[in-house]
Amino acid sequence: MACCEPPPAVAPLVLPHFVPHPLIRGGHLQTILSLRAPQRHPLRPRLHWVPLADGDALALHDDEPEGWLPGAPSVMLVHGLCGNRNSPYMLRLAHRFTALGVRVFRLEMRGCGVGHDRCDGITHAGRSDDCLAALGQIAELTAAGPMAAMGVSLGGNQLLLAAGRLGAGLDARPPWAERWTRLVAVSPPIDLVRCSANMQRRLLRGYNRYFIRHLMLRLPGSIRRSPELMAHCRRPWPKTLRELDERITAPLGGFAGADDYYARCSAARLVEAIEIPSLILAASDDPIVPADCFTAIAPQLADHPAVRLLLASGGGHAGFFARGKERFWMDHVIETWCCAGWPAE
Known about the structure:
Order of helices and strands: HEEEHEHEHEHHHHHHEHHEH
CATH superfamily of the domain at 27-191 and 266-339: Alpha/Beta hydrolase fold, catalytic domain
Distance between the termini: 26 Å
Radius of gyration: 19 Å
Number of helices: 13
Structural class: alpha/beta
Largest sheet: 8 strands, mixed
């Protein structure tokens, strides 16, 4: 598809309505309980390494169901800021999709999980090129068949930014682009300015401490061994994510400052250019990514042929624990959206 051509309209799809679990109400409780690990049989993936242009490498964990054949669907899962391949939603979705016969690839961001010592650079919201490199590797490993991609929080912004850059012609269109049939972004911080201002609130100090502690403890070895780079990371540690982005993310990521980082890496600025059928799933009571990130772009997406916004009345930040049999409502919505882009058996 040429970049100047409008994307084909997404066929109408009825997505389930969210009704919160009666014992898990409110955005904070939904968010906190999302960190609980599911009780599941362990997965035994194959490990692949995704080489990056700057010499870093990403860990890609391949959960291939028995009987999978080239041409069958595959899905890439990308975690959030402090997550890894074993984040609760990553495990739940891997089990869910492999049970459907879908091959699952769980991508770990730079410096996360088993790839901690394979990266000199840090991850951030603008690493759309990392997502494209991983999808390219998956295209080679699977040889054929449709590919979907799902990202939570920071991973969702990276995927939306990748799709937006492709649609806007800012990145070269890869030969496997037609195989990328579906995208889901859950609770993505698409407007980093709004998210940063929101995280400045005193009420959210606990979230700031949680994120900053995890990020500081997993700094790459190359940074820890460099007195010049560690000068950005000296104690006292930042107290807010805005301070962390100004002191650490921006200079180590090649940005002029936090404002430059936010302006260049917020996916909202390119969401209209997305051509891949995409679902943005968010909650109005998300304590981390405020709802106005999504209400601000809702008019742009009202008649968009490829991008759909689903702003639930509750669910917190990537929680979405629901009443009824489908307790993990988010997982059900992701499955419904992705499967709609694959040929019926």
